[in-house]
Amino acid sequence: MDRETRVFAESHFRGLEGRLPSRVCPKLDRVDFIEKPDSFSYADFFKGYLLPNLPCVFSSAFTEDWGSRRLWVTPSGKPNFDYLLQNYGDVVVPVANCGVQEYNSNPKEHMPLRDYISYWKEYIQANYSSSRVCLYLKDWHLCRDFLAEGVFTLPIYFSSDWLNEYWDALDVDDYRFVYMGPTGTWSPFHADVFRSFSWSVNICGRKKWFFFPPGQEEALRDCHGGLPYDVTSPTLLDSRLYPMRDRCGPPLEVTQEAGEMVFVPSGWHHQVHNLEDTISINHNWVNGCNLANMWHFLQQELSAVQQEVIEWRDTMPDWHHHCQVIMKSCSGINFEEFYHFLKIIAERRLLLLAKGMSPGQVEGGEDTGLGPQQAAFDIGRIAEVLESVVAHPDFQRVDPSTFSPRPEVLLRQLEEAVAATTSL
Description:
Blueprint: H1 3-16, E1 32-34, H2 42-50, E2 56-58, H3 67-71, H4 81-88, E3 92-97, E4 108-112, H5 113-125, E5 135-140, H6 142-145, H7 162-170, E6 176-181, E7 186-190, E8 197-204, E9 207-212, E10 252-256, E11 261-264, E12 269-274, E13 278-285, H8 291-308, H9 319-331, H10 335-355, H11 371-391, H12 393-396, H13 407-420
Parallel strand pairs: 1-2
Antiparallel strand pairs: 2-11, 3-4, 3-5, 5-6, 6-13, 7-12, 8-11, 8-13, 9-10, 9-12
Helix pairs in contact: 1-11, 8-9, 10-11, 10-13, 11-13
């Protein structure tokens, strides 16, 4: 990030005046297609898509050097089952049954990749018969379980990735996934975890995306307040079931070809269908641009938990603590861990500014090239959100002995750093 981009970004957030970035976006009638890597900079993406929270599609030229596009794909453009079996055949992978609805998702089982590929081959031989079970390999943590060197190269546009930086620092998890499945597999209507950004690259195959800007999903709620499972279902035309459907505009539709990369903005609900046998690599990520969205989402999640157990508020000892435990179980994170997330990213940014390093160099890793201006921007965004966290009544009820440094101390350090980097 250069200084001009940082100044632009800070001015953008001042202009929001406390409104959520995801809720402020222009109406679109199409999704932009970015064709040439050599004429599209990090600043172009940051200012044109990341800050305004708008989707875009990158051409296959951005991923042409990826090893997975060469090794995982046959010359005819189909999944290279032989290579996948030879290198990953014994790996146990999560597989969803697209034919069964479980709440607004699909039930999962685990099986060796070789068994899934055997199923896939049989499914192809049966001409993708609708009478057969439709299985989709989803959320395989390839990078967590294997050295993924050569499989892909993280595009610089997505380098400011706090979510995976945090989990990598803890060395316990990540939000990097491989998806693969036959023609007809799909992901139901949803918004991404923690209201994160995501990116998705088709290693082979084609996908059809249906995008709804933030807020549009409210018009898709049924008469009981629930969101739809499938936005292509004819049942959405029933005004008795979906009384507000007419208030929702048509989705933005994108057909993603092999090698192309889709950027999914924060809080955009979407549904995705595989039009061919498809393999994709996907990341969820959070940074300073959507941190406020994540914090807002976590507050909503806690409120939902509290409403579910409100009848025990006056009789259950440590009711507020139990709500945080339930929230962690349901959402994967609670207020305590959110603070630790902010702390780790903040301390790394403070360290690299003190040493004059770029974010990618904090622990000797490859330089992302984002530089000290990015670090200064990050610190400003963390400070703003942490101020809101510290003031939240439910955060104030969390056991303070779990925090080091105390949130107020970290906030003061960040505010001092913001002041010191004004002229950077």
